Automatic annotation (TrEMBL):
Any GO BP annotation: thiamine biosynthetic process
Subunit organization: Homooctamer.
GO cellular component: cytosol; nucleus
UniProt keyword Transmembrane, yes or no: no
Residues the record lists as binding substrate: C76, E97, A98, G105, V173, D212, H227, M279, R289, M290, G291
Compartments reported by the entry: Cytoplasm; Nucleus
SUPFAM superfamilies: FAD/NAD(P)-binding domain (SSF51905)
Source organism phylogeny: Eukaryota, Fungi, Dikarya, Ascomycota, Pezizomycotina
UniProt-recorded name of the protein: Thiamine thiazole synthase
Listed cofactors: Fe cation
Reaction(s) catalysed by this chain's protein: [ADP-thiazole synthase]-L-cysteine + glycine + NAD(+) = [ADP-thiazole synthase]-dehydroalanine + ADP-5-ethyl-4-methylthiazole-2-carboxylate + nicotinamide + 3 H2O + 2 H(+)
Amino acid sequence: VVTKTDLKVKPLSEVITVNGEASQVKLLEQFGGKWDSFKFAPIRESQVSRAMTRRYFSDLDKYAESDIVIIGAGSCGLSTAYVLGKARPDLKIAIIEANVSPGGGAWLGGQLFSAMILRKPADAFLNDLGVPFEEDPANPSFVVVKHAALLTSTLLSRVLSFPNIKLFNATSVEDLITRPAATGNPQDTRIAGVVTNWTLVTLHHDDQSCMDPNTINAPVVISTTGHDGPFGAFSAKRLVSMAAVEKLGGMRGLDMNSAEDAIVKNTREVTKGLIIGGMELSEIDGSNRMGPTFGAMVLSGVKAAEEALKVFDE
Ligand code: AHZ
């Protein structure tokens, strides 16, 4: 812990240990002990506004026609984006996340606990991503990441670094864009994109007059909005209300063994143009929940990416 007194009597470089990080040492060489003459480069406020808004609106313009839209940036949606970003740098991929903070339920391992459990063979995903984990000698069937936030923050930073992926957070998918089937059968309806709005607007449709949404067209939409709840299972429920799916299976009780296998194996194109993965799928299929084990979420992301790539590899 660095105290004010320490800083007065010693140069920063002597007080802070930096675990041998060269870049940090250089920062200390650059700034350490020179705070009296410290000054940021000058700025005008409007430059900040323009730098942000120009980029945001240019992204809205660019991604209005996307190749893939991922709904939800939880553990499944982010894993899907990671695999797609690595496999196909040529595709334009938009992620729409209702929350300000992406990550869904993956900032904790479960309840209020920090460690995250992933059943094997999901350790292969961690190795690919470069996230360290421990083996648990008493429990050889799973591995442990010391803090769920380590997995989530690493996934996020990798996903956000891909130049072909744009995350629109604080933005909700309010509806799906549809194209009628030649058969006239609603179950053959094709999904052709998403209807979006800023989440704060979405939350106020009941007490404000009409605030029309925005749209993104895409030949492939991947929905990973989690199980039912205030925000969850969005596309699953919408498919039922538009008669593209007859009725929801409804998520069943907790059974780790059957739940994780089922979610990974059944991650698929549920309706033409719409792949569903992660816990949202349990609402379609009536499969069990698994509780706080995340192997199925990351591997459902791998399967969702594989399903999506079939469309572009054809
Ligand atoms: O904010 C939601 C969350 O970040 C987002 N989302 C939901 N509806 C949306 C909408 N538009 C945009 N209409 C939306 N975003 O989707 C994300 C879902 O993340 P999640 O962590 O809830 O779902 P997941 O399937 O990736 O992971 C599930 C983790 C669970 S739940 C569970 C159990 O209950 O047994 N076990 C596990 C491992």
